[in-house]
Amino acid sequence: MKNHKNPLLALLFLVLPLLLPSVSQAEQFQDFGDYVVHFNALPTSFLDPAVAKNYRIVRSKNRAMLNVTVLKKVMGTAGTPVRATVTASAKNLTDQLKDIEIKEVREGSAIYYIGEVRIANDETLDFTVNATPDGESEPRVVRFRQKFFTDF
Known about the structure:
It is built from 2 helices and 10 strands, in the order αββαββββββββ. It is mostly beta strands. Strands 1, 2, 3, 4, 7 and 8 form a 6-stranded antiparallel beta sheet that branches. A 4-stranded antiparallel beta sheet has the order 6-5-9-10, with no helix packed on it. Strand 3 and strand 4 (about 80) form a beta hairpin.
Protein backbone atom coordinates (compact mmCIF):
# COMPACT_ATOMS: atom_id res chain seq x y z
CA MET A 1 0.00 0.00 0.00
CA LYS A 2 1.27 3.45 -0.80
CA ASN A 3 0.56 7.08 0.02
CA HIS A 4 -0.09 6.67 3.73
CA LYS A 5 -0.21 10.00 5.51
CA ASN A 6 1.15 8.30 8.61
CA PRO A 7 2.12 4.68 7.93
CA LEU A 8 3.24 4.06 11.51
CA LEU A 9 -0.16 5.11 12.84
CA ALA A 10 -1.93 2.94 10.27
CA LEU A 11 0.24 -0.03 11.17
CA LEU A 12 -0.42 0.53 14.85
CA PHE A 13 -4.19 0.41 14.37
CA LEU A 14 -4.00 -2.84 12.42
CA VAL A 15 -1.43 -4.64 14.56
CA LEU A 16 -2.49 -3.30 17.97
CA PRO A 17 -5.26 -5.88 18.41
CA LEU A 18 -2.65 -8.60 18.03
CA LEU A 19 -0.41 -7.08 20.68
CA LEU A 20 -2.76 -5.94 23.44
CA PRO A 21 -4.79 -8.53 25.33
CA SER A 22 -7.37 -5.93 26.35
CA VAL A 23 -8.32 -5.07 22.78
CA SER A 24 -11.18 -7.16 21.39
CA GLN A 25 -10.59 -10.50 23.08
CA ALA A 26 -7.49 -11.70 24.85
CA GLU A 27 -4.55 -12.12 22.53
CA GLN A 28 -5.13 -15.20 20.45
CA PHE A 29 -2.36 -17.31 19.00
CA GLN A 30 -1.52 -20.88 18.23
CA ASP A 31 1.97 -22.35 18.52
CA PHE A 32 3.08 -24.69 15.73
CA GLY A 33 6.65 -25.46 16.78
CA ASP A 34 8.80 -23.26 14.52
CA TYR A 35 5.90 -20.87 13.83
CA VAL A 36 3.28 -18.99 15.82
CA VAL A 37 0.07 -17.78 14.18
CA HIS A 38 -1.54 -14.74 15.83
CA PHE A 39 -5.14 -13.94 14.94
CA ASN A 40 -8.15 -11.87 15.93
CA ALA A 41 -11.39 -10.52 14.56
CA LEU A 42 -13.15 -7.28 15.41
CA PRO A 43 -15.97 -5.14 14.03
CA THR A 44 -14.61 -2.76 11.42
CA SER A 45 -16.50 0.08 13.12
CA PHE A 46 -13.70 -0.03 15.73
CA LEU A 47 -11.15 1.08 13.12
CA ASP A 48 -10.12 4.69 12.72
CA PRO A 49 -11.76 6.05 9.52
CA ALA A 50 -8.40 7.06 8.00
CA VAL A 51 -6.92 3.62 8.62
CA ALA A 52 -9.95 1.90 7.12
CA LYS A 53 -9.74 4.13 4.05
CA ASN A 54 -6.01 3.49 3.57
CA TYR A 55 -6.56 -0.27 3.61
CA ARG A 56 -9.84 -0.18 1.68
CA ILE A 57 -11.74 -1.67 4.60
CA VAL A 58 -15.45 -0.95 4.85
CA ARG A 59 -16.23 0.50 8.30
CA SER A 60 -19.53 -0.89 9.51
CA LYS A 61 -21.04 -2.39 12.62
CA ASN A 62 -22.11 -5.24 10.34
CA ARG A 63 -18.62 -6.15 9.12
CA ALA A 64 -15.70 -7.73 10.92
CA MET A 65 -12.02 -7.69 10.04
CA LEU A 66 -9.92 -10.81 10.42
CA ASN A 67 -6.26 -10.07 11.16
CA VAL A 68 -3.59 -12.80 10.92
CA THR A 69 0.18 -12.67 11.43
CA VAL A 70 2.61 -15.58 11.02
CA LEU A 71 5.83 -15.39 13.03
CA LYS A 72 8.89 -17.63 12.69
CA LYS A 73 10.34 -18.34 16.11
CA VAL A 74 13.77 -16.80 16.62
CA MET A 75 15.56 -17.43 19.93
CA GLY A 76 15.66 -14.34 22.13
CA THR A 77 13.07 -12.39 20.12
CA ALA A 78 9.30 -12.14 19.81
CA GLY A 79 9.64 -13.81 16.41
CA THR A 80 10.07 -12.64 12.84
CA PRO A 81 7.06 -11.97 10.57
CA VAL A 82 7.09 -14.22 7.52
CA ARG A 83 5.14 -14.31 4.27
CA ALA A 84 2.54 -17.02 4.00
CA THR A 85 -0.31 -18.18 1.84
CA VAL A 86 -3.37 -17.47 3.98
CA THR A 87 -6.94 -18.54 3.30
CA ALA A 88 -9.88 -18.18 5.66
CA SER A 89 -13.56 -18.89 6.01
CA ALA A 90 -16.19 -18.52 8.69
CA LYS A 91 -19.33 -20.50 9.37
CA ASN A 92 -22.23 -19.31 11.49
CA LEU A 93 -24.28 -21.54 13.77
CA THR A 94 -26.79 -22.24 10.99
CA ASP A 95 -23.91 -23.62 8.90
CA GLN A 96 -23.81 -20.73 6.41
CA LEU A 97 -20.29 -20.63 4.98
CA LYS A 98 -18.67 -17.23 4.48
CA ASP A 99 -15.46 -17.22 2.45
CA ILE A 100 -13.09 -14.45 3.46
CA GLU A 101 -10.92 -12.82 0.81
CA ILE A 102 -7.49 -12.26 2.36
CA LYS A 103 -5.01 -9.59 1.33
CA GLU A 104 -1.40 -9.25 2.39
CA VAL A 105 -0.25 -6.00 3.96
CA ARG A 106 3.47 -5.19 4.27
CA GLU A 107 4.87 -2.18 6.05
CA GLY A 108 8.53 -2.18 6.91
CA SER A 109 9.29 -5.56 8.45
CA ALA A 110 5.65 -6.16 9.42
CA ILE A 111 3.61 -8.64 7.39
CA TYR A 112 -0.02 -9.31 8.15
CA TYR A 113 -3.08 -10.62 6.41
CA ILE A 114 -6.51 -9.02 6.62
CA GLY A 115 -9.95 -9.89 5.36
CA GLU A 116 -13.54 -8.85 5.93
CA VAL A 117 -16.71 -10.76 6.64
CA ARG A 118 -20.34 -9.68 7.11
CA ILE A 119 -21.66 -10.10 10.68
CA ALA A 120 -24.95 -9.64 12.52
CA ASN A 121 -25.65 -8.72 16.13
CA ASP A 122 -25.28 -11.65 18.52
CA GLU A 123 -23.81 -13.80 15.72
CA THR A 124 -21.27 -16.49 16.51
CA LEU A 125 -18.76 -17.38 13.81
CA ASP A 126 -16.46 -20.38 13.66
CA PHE A 127 -13.34 -19.25 11.79
CA THR A 128 -10.93 -21.55 9.97
CA VAL A 129 -7.59 -20.03 8.95
CA ASN A 130 -5.04 -21.92 6.84
CA ALA A 131 -1.59 -20.31 6.93
CA THR A 132 1.21 -21.92 4.93
CA PRO A 133 4.53 -20.13 5.56
CA ASP A 134 6.63 -19.59 2.43
CA GLY A 135 8.92 -22.55 1.87
CA GLU A 136 6.64 -24.91 3.79
CA SER A 137 4.23 -27.43 2.29
CA GLU A 138 1.77 -27.96 5.13
CA PRO A 139 -0.67 -25.30 6.31
CA ARG A 140 -0.90 -24.31 9.95
CA VAL A 141 -4.64 -24.57 10.63
CA VAL A 142 -6.23 -22.33 13.24
CA ARG A 143 -9.85 -22.67 14.31
CA PHE A 144 -11.56 -20.28 16.67
CA ARG A 145 -15.04 -19.18 17.63
CA GLN A 146 -16.06 -15.60 18.21
CA LYS A 147 -19.36 -13.96 19.07
CA PHE A 148 -20.03 -10.45 17.76
CA PHE A 149 -22.19 -7.78 19.32
CA THR A 150 -23.04 -4.93 16.98
CA ASP A 151 -25.91 -3.20 18.81
CA PHE A 152 -24.21 -1.19 21.54
